[in-house]
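Tokens in:
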């Protein structure tokens, strides 16, 4: 793919198979010679690509047996990253995404939001439910950790849904707060600056490396946060 080193492309392709569930834990990864033939590359390139998956904790090498998909990290099994489209369609409403900004930025311009030394893709847009603005989103994606995002324009697919399918993660952090919208969010959502909104900020990492930062603003009357708990020990 354009501008992406072959070993990074192989790593991303294999990680996508894992993230999608096509390769569940315990699945045997194709051997080096199969990958060399598939990508028309040298053994060292395949070794570098698979080695990156080992470092990320996505696969494990077993002596004389091969390379296998690793069991997921505990945090990835406990914390769920929501898919806005899936949530809207589960309500029986039509979903639409409208991108307003998609550009590459240098890391210094996003300091404090995404910790990375490489270029960052900035995407902004609106999620619609039944024809009405449902959420305003601002997102930053590290192109060092998600290089295939450089080839996407996110005109039809929201970046969050794309990342769920293409960028495995091991850690996440959420910050939820009640706010009045800033001028950008208010204008995008067609709200007054005094409107009650919910702000959801999210960061994800893969083995300590930052993947993405997102800020989503929801009109307060359109969103509910629910969770189900059981007592400890039950």
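Residues out:
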């Amino acid at each position: 793919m354009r501008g992406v080193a072959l070993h990074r492309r192989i790593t991303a392709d294999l990680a996508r198979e894992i993230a999608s569930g096509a390769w569940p834990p315990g699945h045997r990864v194709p051997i080096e010679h199969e990958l060399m033939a598939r990508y028309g590359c040298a053994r060292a390139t395949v070794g570098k690509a698979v080695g990156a998956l080992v470092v990320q904790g996505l696969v494990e090498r077993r002596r004389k047996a091969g390379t296998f998909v690793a069991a997921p990290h505990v945090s990835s099994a406990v914390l769920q990253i929501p898919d806005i489209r899936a949530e809207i369609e589960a309500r029986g409403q039509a979903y639409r995404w409208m991108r307003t900004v998609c550009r590459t930025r240098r890391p210094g311009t996003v300091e404090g939001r995404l910790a990375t030394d490489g270029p960052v893709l900035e995407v902004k847009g609106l999620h619609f439910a039944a024809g009405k603005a449902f959420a305003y989103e601002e997102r930053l994606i590290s192109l060092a950790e998600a290089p295939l995002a450089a080839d996407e324009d996110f005109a039809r697919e929201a970046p969050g849904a794309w990342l769920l399918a293409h960028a495995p993660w091991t850690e996440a952090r959420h910050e939820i707060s009640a706010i009045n919208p800033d001028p950008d969010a208010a204008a995008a959502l067609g709200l007054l600056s005094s409107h009650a909104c919910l702000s959801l900020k999210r960061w994800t990492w893969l083995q300590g490396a930052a993947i993405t930062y997102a800020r989503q603003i929801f009109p307060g009357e359109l969103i509910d946060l629910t969770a189900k708990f059981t007592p400890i020990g039950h």
